[in-house]
Amino acid sequence: MRALIKLFFLLILLTLAAVAGVFWFVFSDTPQITGQTVLAHQDIARARQILRQNDPRNMPPGATHVMEIGARDLGLASNYLLQQLALGSAQLSLATDRLDLQASLRIPRVPWRNTLNLEASIETIDGQARIAQLRLGRLNVPPRLANLAAAKILQHGYTRARLGNLADPVQELGLFPDRLRLSYRWHPALIDQARDTLLSGSDREALRHYHDLLVDLQTKGVGKHGPLTKLLQPMFAAALARSAERDPVEENNALLTVLGTWAGKQDISRLVPGSPRRPGAFRLKLQRRTDFGRHFLISAALAARGDTALSNAVGLFKEISDTDSGSGFSFADIAADRAGTRFGEQATRSREAAKQVQRRLAMGIVEADIMPPARDLPEHIRSETFKQRFGYVGSPAYQEVMDEIERRINACGLYRN
Fold it and tell me: Against a cut of 0.70, is the pTM above it?
């Protein structure tokens, strides 16, 4: 009996040693690929164009679509997605029938050796992709094993999406030095599967909680009109109470995601499906302006989910677009965007910062605590006037106004420390 017990503990120790050895070889303290993709307003315009051209939602199930993405657009998108999903950076290059990728991904909540450096090469043969090389840290993964694992992961995803006996969605992949071409069969269930994969059970529960709380508050007359701060106080008071047993960062993230989706006039049923009740139209204001409230909440939601670069670029893109149409370029709207971004960052920067924001808002705040004076900033600027006064985005004259906006934001009560 003692011999069996010793053998059992020896097997446990060997297993732990093997896991530790793999961990040591796979993970590292330092990333090989560094740097952060900064989105300019031109990048947002290009992304919107690509999405419009390749939006499959109006296609009938089972229809085949061919999508082409240029090398620069593909590199920008992959790098940006890695930053948001895995706090990482990537370098990507295309050649005929080959894609090479180097990436460094940071694993959250791991205190040391929390970086995964990987190198991968994907080749196409007769339009079908295969992993030709995969290196995780210092560990070389045999291509046969890598392809088998990839096939299992994809099949698991298709099974969860309930595609049944339908064909593999990916029909053909073409790799060229200047672009990627993908032919795929459209299955609407894949959208639901992607959403379910990105949102855990706790995410969905929190989103539904704050959605239902918003609806309940509106039935009591709160959040239907008037200052935005009157709604933020009870919403963050609820987040503070829930954070006694939950992660305050995740609570603030879910709260701001609901408010940002609502303010942005997006279909909130995609975020919280199945609910028979929906909030009324967004009419809340900052400094007596609904557009300020909308800009603030959308930017806060993007920043809370780690999309600070996107938040800044989206706000700038809209204002650049408005120089030729719409209301014209507005530094006042940019101020609301930047204040919302700062709010979203601070509300989710760390557990302690998240709780500090909850406590502060639960006690009640005034608009000046979260939004700087902005009504005197230049706005309604048409394209020619913008060129005459400021030249271009980033010019000294333009940056002077942006610096003034940042100075005002830094003076707001919630952001001083």
Answer: no
